[in-house]
Amino acid sequence: MCGIAGLWSNFCENIQLEEDIKNMASNLNHRGPDNEGFWTDQKVNFYLTHKRLSILDISTAGSQPMISHNERYVISFNGEIYNNFDLRNELEKINNSIKWRGHSDTEILLELISYFGIEKALLKCTGMFALALWDRNEKCLKLARDRMGEKPLYYGLSGGDRSQTFLFGSELSAITSWRFFDNNINPNALFQLLNYQAISAPATIFKGIHQLLPGHILTLKNLKSKDLPESRPWWDLKSSIEKSLNDPIKDEECAISATESILKNAIKMQSIADVPLGTFLSGGIDSSLITALLQSESNTQIK
Length: 303
Hints:
33% of the residues lie in helices and 22% in strands. It contains nine helices and twelve strands.
C-alpha cells in the first residue's frame, strides 16, 4: 500500500504549510517506506504528498506525485490498476506518439484521465485505489475511491475563517496532525461506535471529517463556502448487479466453470509485480483454494 495526503488552505503562511504537509506525510511512513514526494501550487496554497510502496516500476519513473504528459494534471495515487497493460495498449492505438517515462500503472491512469476524463477513465480500470487529482488549469481538486472501497480516503474542512483548510489523507492520523485541527468528537459517530463497535461511512469519529464513499468522486473548486460539495457515484453496485441479472447463467456446470475462470483471471492479474509476491491466508477451505489456484497460475511454491 501507499499513502496519500494533502491540504488546500486559506492560511497564507507558506512556510508553515510546508511544515504541515511534511507532518502529514510523516504520519503515513508505515504505508510507504520506499519513497516520499511533494508537489505544491503555492499561488492557491495547495499541497500534495505521497508515500510510496513500490510494486510496479520500482524506478524513479514511478515516483509520485506525478504530472501528466500534457502537464495539466497532478496525481497522488494509492492502489493498483490490474489491467494497466491492456489500457496502455488501448492508449497507444489512439496515440502512438506517447513517450512513456516507465511502465507504472499511475502513469497509464494519468494518460487515461487526460484523454477520457476521470469518470470514463475509472470505469475502464479494474483495481483498488484511492486518489487525489489536481487540475492545474481549473484549480480544481478531485478525490476518488475504488468501486468497493478497498482503499481508504478521508477528507474534511477544519479551522476558522482565516485558517480554513480542506484536508485529506489515507488515514485520519495524517489529517489530525494539522496544527489547527479542530479535535471535536462527532457524537453520532461515538454513539455508533459504542453500540455497534463500528462507525458507518461517510461518518468518522471527528466532527466535520468524512470517509469518501466507495465508487464515489468528490469535486472541490474553491474554499469560499463553509459547506463541502456532496460526492457523487462514478459506479453503482446495484446497477451492476441488475445488469448482470439480465443474462444469468442457468446451467450449474457452466456457472462453476465461469466462476473458476473469473477467479483464476483475478489472481493472475493481481500477481503482476516487479517485486517478490507473498500471500497471507487463514488456511480454511477458501484460502486453500486460492493458494492452489495461485500456484497453478504462477508455477511457484507458496509457503
